[in-house]
Amino acid sequence: MKRPLRRSFAVLLLVVLVGAASFSAALRRAVAPAREEAPPPLDAARLNATLLRLAAADPSEALLRRDVDELLEGRLPASAARARAWRRDRLVHPLHLHHHRFPLPRRGGGRYPDDDHDVLLHPLPRHDQQQLHIDPALRRALRSWHRLRRYDPAVLGSLPSLLSLPRRVPTCAIVGNSGILLRANHGALIDSHDAVFRLNNARIAGYAAHVGTKTNFSFINSNILHLCARRPACFCHPYGHGVPILLYICQAAHFLDVAACNATSSSRHGSPISVTDARLDVLCARIVKYYSLRRFVTATGRAAEEWDRAHDAAMFHYSSGMQAIMVAVGVCDRVSVFGFGKSSDAKHHYHSNQKAELDLHDYEAEYAFYHDLAEQPQVVPFLKDAGFAVPPVVFYH
């Protein structure tokens, strides 16, 4: 009798254990939060619409508006890195932005010669608050620039007149600064173009066989300009006094350096530093942000709305190389591009020892744009709204 009882007891115990386990599992499913299912991927048309919408958004506009207002009211924008640089480099209170000559003491005694006076900054006793007395011409330029910050792709067709060109240029060469330039002797080919555009005051001496010697337009970024503004008479014309310099503004405080350089160097340089039309800036910014958004979605599989977590959306901007290419597209009948791209065995810049890219731009997004610009310009977003025939663009690698 004992053996059957043991067998029955064992079976009963097994049933109880299985039931308890089933109850425990059911209880966990009941109290556990439901898993969020990933949203289905957007179809191509809906994704493109999302990318266009996000690319058109400018999160920096409110901050920029505040900075412009502060400058117009005579205050250095507290949020601008350039304003902090002025405080650090100038050490002058208050700052005066007038077209008059005020000698600044030189370290070790003495004064700068008359031609080297810093005409914008008058050293006065320090006060509790900094005050800018801004020249009326600078006020007008600042207001006009901010008023033009709107989406108007038709600006491309107006670039020849905006740059005071009598007509479109037949052939143009854009010379970048990539180390891949040293792989070929394109110097003579570059110089054979009607106009040559160079970037950020890159050196020519010693590299003529690779990059040529001719320069008709110089494009610089705000960091290069700030270095120029710190020099006596703002020397920023290594290609000659008559070569026009173009700069795009992404912070209102950059106008301080533009004003400083134009006022100090106007007597010795035939061409002032010009700020590009703000409508072109908006067009370029939308295009590169679109390609950056698309690359982010493709590379990560995440929603496009999460892009700003991987980028400083308010500071995101395009390179001076992209600006030069867009200007050339607007003013030239044929565009040749040299020295754009990278390679693991080439330096970042042909004229320096820098090997890595700076984390300031999304170069991969810009390269994707360049590919479409050369191969299928009709698909480039925002550009196709310009009603503008994109000229042939050829990239030499």
TrEMBL record:
Q: Which Pfam families match?
A: Glyco_transf_29
Query: Which key words are in the record?
Result: Glycoprotein, Glycosyltransferase, Golgi apparatus, Membrane, Signal, Signal-anchor, Transferase, Transmembrane, Transmembrane helix
User: Care to name a GO molecular-function term for this sequence?
Assistant: sialyltransferase activity
Q: Which InterPro entries match?
A: Glyco_trans_29, GT29-like_sf
Gene3D superfamilies assigned: Glycosyl transferase family 29
- Where in the sequence is the signal peptide annotated? 1-20
Q: What is its main location?
A: Golgi
Under the cellular component aspect of Gene Ontology, which terms does the record hold?
Answer: Golgi membrane
Topology in membrane: Single-pass type II membrane protein
Cell location: Golgi apparatus membrane
> Which family does the UniProt entry place this protein in?
Belongs to the glycosyltransferase 29 family.
Q: Per its record, how is this protein called by name? A: Sialyltransferase-like protein 1
